[in-house]
Amino acid sequence: MKLYDTRTAPNPRRVRVFLAEKGIEIPDVQQIDLGRLEQKGEEFSRINPVQRTPALELDDGTILTESIAICRYFEELQPSPPLMGTDAKSKALVEMWQRRIELHFLMPVAMAFRHTHPEAPLHRRRRIHDCRHHGTRCMRFHEASTDSPI
Ligand SMILES: N[C@@H](CCC(=O)N[C@@H](CS)C(=O)NCC(=O)O)C(=O)O
Fold first, then answer.
1. Ligand 1: distance of its center to the CA of 79 in Å?
2. Range of the domain at 4
3. From atom 15 of ligand 1, which residue's Cα is the shortest distance away?
4. Number of structural domains, the chain?
5. 32: helix, coil or strand?
6. Distance (Å) from CA 1 to ligand 1 centroid
7. How many angstroms is it from 53 CA to the middle of ligand 1?
């Protein structure tokens, strides 16, 4: 198992905090330097075509991305201490706060950073370009890695 992490970024930090709370140590951790745009390099793009950290590579070669999916994986592997609820109500409450924080707090803060940066106009053009390509890249990756018609 290998974790692709970025010490300075909030989404990988969610996974690190989650692992620390669970008392799980991952011996193989590779740092991806976003400042040097390592996430966009060929090597990491093969791991995560969406070019974002964190990513978790399982021993069977499966790659999990999306911090919350990675947390969910560890929650199922090691349920104690429970961090995502234990019954219908507590699980729904955890999910509700995850969505609220991601959509109404993290995203606006991320957008403020992106769009008030002095290089924002350049960055914005790059993002629009990236967004157009991420969708197709994800679909191609999905088609190549599963038998699923969707
Ligand atoms: N929804 C994803 C978001 C991942 C994400 O945006 N990661 C940021 C670091 S916090 C990243 O890799 N950014 C690189 C970029 O925007 O090029 C998750 O929860 O893992």
1. 26
2. 1-83
3. 52
4. 1
5. coil
6. 20
7. 5
Q: 118 preceded by cis ω (within 30°)? A: no
How many Å separate Cα 147 from the centre of its chain? 24
- Residue ID of nearest Cα to ligand 1 atom 1: 66
Residue 61 lies in a domain: yes
Share of the chain above pLDDT 90, in %: 67
pLDDT digits (tens, 9 = 90+) for 56-67: 999 999 999 999
* CA-to-CA separations, 83 to 64, 69, 74, 90, in angstroms, rounded: 19, 13, 10, 10
pTM of structure: 0.81
R_g (Cα) of the chain, nearest Å: 17
Distance CA 47, CA 41 (A): 10
8 CB-near residues (< 8 Å, 6+ apart): 34, 35
CATH number at residue 50: 3.40.30.10
Pocket test for ligand 1, best of 6, 11, 133 (most atoms within 8 A of CB): 11
Give the atom of ligand 1 at the shortest distance from the alpha carbon of 52: 12
The per-residue pLDDT for range 5-27, each reduced to its tens digit, is: 999 999 999 999 999 999 999 99
Ligand 1 centre distance from Cα of residue 132 (Å): 16
**Amino acid identity, residue 5?**
D
